[in-house]
Amino acid sequence: QAKAEGGSCLRVFEPAMDERLRTRRALVADLRNAMARQELTILFQPQVSTATRRITGAEALLRWHHPTRGLISPETFIPLAEQTGLIVPIGAWVLEQACHVARGWGDLHLAVNVSPLQVRQASFVATVEQALARSGLPPQRLELEITEAAMLANSAETLGILSRLRSLGVRLAMDDFGTGYSSLATLQRFRFDKIKVDRSFIRHLARDARAVALLRAVIALGSALDVTTNAEGVEDEGQLSLLRAEGCDEAQGYLFGRPMSAAEFHARVNRQDSRAA
Ligand code: C2E
Ligand code: MG
Ligand code: MG
Ligand code: MG
């Protein structure tokens, strides 16, 4: 119909575009206040050893409980926070809160996602140092997850910030490995402590021999470079046994637990410890 009317095509789409922009603007305005209004919470998802199934640590995952729109996924609001620079104060908050929580986890590690924009701030190292100092979390127990997109800039400054972080004792993980085009180049330029194989490779393991071949190659790469390997998005026992057989060190996914509150995670860890004792 719109086509037949020729030029009116534009008019058909305008209101929708307008609506999208309005929604975006409203979300950004709300996001500015989200921290102060205590609408942000951090959940923790267990990471386990594939060999023993024991919890080795957890990844902090941010959630936004919007007063009228309900739960908003980080896939939606993290990009907005990045585009507006809000990710810098929000990221600093996540880091400090999560470090506080993880302080009481014995020797388990805490993984925190950091966005490219945060890593490019000259003040980022100080932000991390402050979170560690205030929480009392030993640097060795903190792991920063950086997506390879962070490396796209691959600037000398970014690499300098990463090495200062490593000299603090903080560990660095490359998140979503294999989904970008610069993963290998980045591994050549910088030493990471962990590679997280993206969920898209794990999802098809049961049916796709090529997925298995790719996984095997990434694990071999990790082992050759002496880098720990973690598989994201493990949902069934079949995937776990394959990962174990192939020598992947760590796994994370719904099979072991969805992202959960700090209290639930703490209880999980205590149950595990009492079973071992
Ligand atoms: P990510 O860092 O790759 O985190 C893994 C995502 O996979 C999480 O989604 C997690 O809930 C989900 N997941 C874990 N296990 C499974 C599974 O077995 N099956 C399936 N289908 N999904 C699984 P989530 O929590 O929605 O977070 C999405 C992304 O948002 C994260 O991807 C990360 O890039 C970003 N993000 C989350 N929190 C933060 C944060 O505090 N700061 C920054 N900069 N980014 C964050
Ligand atoms: Mg992550
Ligand atoms: Mg990931
Ligand atoms: Mg991701």
Automatic annotation (TrEMBL):
Location of the EAL domain: 24-273
Domain of life: Bacteria
The protein's name in its UniProt record: Diguanylate cyclase (GGDEF) domain-containing protein
Region of the whole protein represented: 512 to 788 of 788
